[in-house]
Design goal:
about 140 residues; two-stranded antiparallel sheet; two-stranded antiparallel ribbon; 4 strands
């Protein structure tokens, strides 16, 4: 079915919490990749480790990771409505570049204040959440 090599490596320039995820072709696109991503993510949360998957990703792996990141961040924001942009790394176990890319991809940034820290627009978050729920 698949292999998950779940080593948390912080010696790299970019910390990772998942090194290898392989799903053999007969079992691809059946949800096993999502399950293994969730297991690796849960383990990273449990160990309080920030990071993401080791790069480069295949096109299918990239699509799956974007889907997983989008859902995880939106779910975090719906559960913790008072979360700030900077809190998302701690709450999701994703390193900041992943958070930044996902927030831009979801287009949920509100205004940028004087200290150049963007805020998150609650109406945009709810709209993204609703469109996400329709795809499930």
């Amino acid at each position: 079915m698949g292999i998950l090599w779940d080593t948390i490596r912080e010696s790299f320039k970019v910390p990772t919490w998942m090194s290898i995820l392989v799903i053999v072709p007969p079992f691809q696109r059946k949800g096993y990749g999502s399950l293994l991503y969730e297991l690796a993510h849960y383990e990273a949360l449990r160990k309080c480790s920030l990071g993401g998957p080791e790069r480069p990703l295949t096109p299918i792996g990239t699509a799956l990771f974007h889907y997983f990141c989008d859902g995880t961040i939106l779910q975090c924001l719906m559960r913790n409505p008072e979360s700030k942009y900077g809190d998302l790394s701690v709450l999701t176990a994703f390193d900041f570049p992943i958070i930044e890319a996902t927030v831009k991809r979801l287009q949920i940034i509100g205004e940028v204040r004087r200290n150049l820290v963007p805020t998150l627009d609650r109406t945009k978050i709810e709209k993204a959440w609703d469109s996400r729920k329709e795809s499930w």
